[in-house]
Amino acid sequence: MLAAVFVCAACGLVYELELVALASYLAGDSVTHASVVLSVMVFAMGLGSLLAKRLVCRAAVGFGLVEAALALVGGCSALVLYAAFAWVGASRVPLVVFSLAIGVLIGAEVPLLMTLIQRVSRRRGPDAGAASAASAEQDAGGAVADLFAADYVGALVGGLAFPFLLLPWLGQLTSALATGAVNAVAGAVLVFWLFGRDLTARQKWLLLAVNGTVLLVLATTALLVADFERAARRAVYGDAVRVAVHTGVQEVVLAGPPGEPPDLFLDGRLRVRGHDERRYHRALVHPAMRGPHARVLVLGGGDGLALREVLGYRDVAAVTVVELDPGVVRVARTDPALTRLNRRAYADPRVRVVHADAFVWLRRAAAAPATPRFDVVVSDLPDPESTAGAKLYSQEFYGLAARSLADSGRLVVHAGAPSARPRVFWTVDATLRAAGFATRLYRASAAPPPPFPYHPGHPSAHGRVARGAPADWGFVLAARGGSAPLRSVDGPGTDAVAGPPAAGIRPSTLVHPRYAE
């Protein structure tokens, strides 16, 4: 019985982590969605414990049905959420519904298990000689302690298995389905093995039919996961998907009609628009290169496009690229369309690639006195849409970047879209100033999207992908206060941004990220 409790607890936590991970992937803002999932689920667990009172008189069959329902709902939750994102363009309502349903079912387990474990203890009493009432109470208390111990240890194992085993081996959808199958089998084995003689023939057939149906649904769905992913990917990106790779960090997708520069999506979010990426990367790199630029550091930019612009300067002696995801670099090195776009930048002998978190790498570099300083640091990082992303736009991050700069060095930061998110743009500027930088702000206008029906900017597109195409890009060019004069940022395709920021803009820090305010 404790083994079954252990397995069911592990499965319950996997469902919870699946919801948090998929919500962060589909909608961003991991703190908000993790808070919603956890708070709704804990509330629902209390509600489920109250509702389970009606099943206590039939605890064995009730537990079997609850586990079958939990296996079906939890196992299919990830697939339904992804389908809602792909075909409807929204997943927040299904997220709350599944958090509520899974929480109710997990909460119903505890009172039913308490009843069953007490029933087992009463059975053992007469066999052992029917000890005194005090001894029986002591045994019951010990059994309950064992129950909670098995539950908590199972939760620990489930929490560790999800990121280190299930996600890398099976992916989000299949891991949820496999967890549901294990959950259903564990519940059925417990009920039939220990309490089968307490069940009527009708109850036995009911449990067999329900569990058999659940396992059949989960197995059939698992066989169709690959087809489902392809269909959902077409719904999100269109029919012109060229490459779709699940790395250990994210999903990398290249899409676009044959013969056209590809668009790059990371975890469903548009990162590079092939038809006008040159506008972005030239505006990002060239203003910072006006001055000494023998040694350049590129933070992010695993697609190699910012690197291409840096390597266009013949007097660049060495470039270090710090990219977290090796999968992005691997695609940038091997995909024919992307290598044409980045001009095989990674084949240049001046390039050194480091696979690490940019914050961690800068911290280690700042602590190592032998680390050479850089003339230019190019921060080509995703927008600060989550807590993990916000740390790369924090005052502490820019303080570490300043320690990696040479005395006359410059730092350039991609600061989001000024027209769509002006507060984010000005918060980047305020944060750099708080870190001791002198700054100049500028922007570049994006080109209108081409008339391809699949394209994210086309009226037929929807959801996050359509909103991922900005009308402009904002940048901040910075130098340590007074250490290097900042030259003009005006140039082809760029305009200086003048004027004071909006009132009340404060810098973003690790303990108080302000980009979501």
Describe this structure in words.
The protein is an alpha/beta fold. It has two domains: 2-230, MFS general substrate transporter like domains (Growth Hormone, Chain: A); 274-497, 3-Layer(aba) Sandwich (Rossmann fold), CATH 3.40.50.150. It has 16 helices and twelve strands. It has helices spanning 2-27, 30-51, 59-88, 92-127, 133-195, 201-223, 225-237, 277-285, 305-311, 326-334, 336-342, 358-367, 387-390, 395-404, 422-434, 463-467; strands spanning 241-246, 251-255, 263-266, 269-272, 295-300, 318-322, 351-354, 374-380, 405-414, 437-445, 472-480, 494-497. An eight-stranded mixed β-sheet has the order 7-6-5-8-9-11-10-12, with helices on both faces. A four-stranded antiparallel β-sheet has the order 1-2-3-4, sandwiched between helices. Helix 1 packs antiparallel against helix 4 (92-127). The two termini are 48 Å apart. Mean pLDDT is 86; it is low at 453-467.
